[in-house]
Amino acid sequence: MLHSLAYQEPSPFAGQRVLVVGSGNSAVQIAVELADVAHVTLAARTQLHLAPQRPLGRDIHDWLTWARVDQLTLGHLRRLLSPRTVFDPGRYRAAFHAGKLDQRRMFPRFMAGGVVWPDGQEELVDAVIFATGYRADLDFLRGTGALDGLGEPVQRLWVSRTVPGLYFVGLSG
């Protein structure tokens, strides 16, 4: 078992049965990459929602900038976009349709060497990768005026709008 943070590349999993837990970008990216060398199942509590990375021939980020979504705080942006939306660069949906990997509802429990699915079916797996997300720990900024009431950075394009000289490097802009 490992978290997606520790995952580096698919070759150590060649020929194995791998369970990837999660339904976000990291989970799908890892699952599709692994599907070239392993038997992969993606387990998630919610249904996977794929959206094209390049609708109408332009990158989604261009559209978001055009719509001025880049000026919203992270809290507002999270309410606007579903956290379950995965932007597909073109190969994710194809991998699912080609049967290279499958998706199942989250398993309720582990058993020795595997998992038990909601229907009671037991399945042995060689590896489990938890791609359950990352969350920035910004609690140390509470009380500085850098965060809004939801604990989200008050920023635009990584620059704090409330604390001069503060930048949010590595966070969504």
Task: Give a brief rundown of this model.
The chain is α/β, with parallel strands linked by helices and 173 residues long. The chain contains 4 helices and 12 strands, in the order E-E-H-E-E-H-H-E-H-E-E-E-E-E-E-E. Strand 2 (17-21), helix 1 (25-34) and strand 3 form a beta-alpha-beta unit.
Q: Residue-averaged pLDDT, rounded?
A: 86
> What strand line-up does the widest sheet have?
1-10-2-3-6
The named CATH superfamily of the domain at 2-48 and 84-134: FAD/NAD(P)-binding domain
Radius of gyration: 19 Å
The amount of helix comes to 10-25%
Number of strands: 12
The profile of the biggest β sheet is: 5 strands, parallel
Low-confidence stretches: none
End-to-end C-alpha gap:
32 Å
Overall geometry: globular
CATH class of the domain at 2-48 and 84-134: Alpha Beta
Q: Which structural class is indicated by helix and strand composition? A: alpha/beta
Would you tell me which CATH topology of the domain at 2-48 and 84-134 applies? FAD/NAD(P)-binding domain
Count of alpha and pi helical runs: 4
SS strand fraction: 15-25%
What CATH architecture of the domain at 2-48 and 84-134 would you give?
3-Layer(bba) Sandwich
SSE sequence, one letter per element: EEHEEHHEHEEEEEEE
Secondary-structure map:
Blueprint lengths: L1 E2 L13 E5 L3 H10 L4 E6 L4 E4 L7 H7 L7 H7 L4 E4 L3 H6 L3 E5 L3 E3 L2 E3 L5 E3 L2 E4 L24 E2 L2 E2 L13
Parallel strand pairs: 1-10, 2-3, 2-10, 3-6, 4-5
Antiparallel strand pairs: 7-8, 8-9, 11-12
Textual characterization of the structure:
This protein has helices at 25-34, 60-66, 74-80, 92-97; strands at 2-3, 17-21, 39-44, 49-52, 85-88, 101-105, 109-111, 114-116, 122-124, 127-130, 155-156, 159-160. By secondary structure, it is an alpha/beta fold. It has a domain at 2-48 and 84-134: FAD/NAD(P)-binding domain. The strands form four sheets. It has a five-stranded parallel β-sheet, covered by helices on one side. The chain has a three-stranded antiparallel β-sheet with strand order 7-8-9, with no helix packed on it. β2, α1 (25-34) and β3 form a beta-alpha-beta unit.
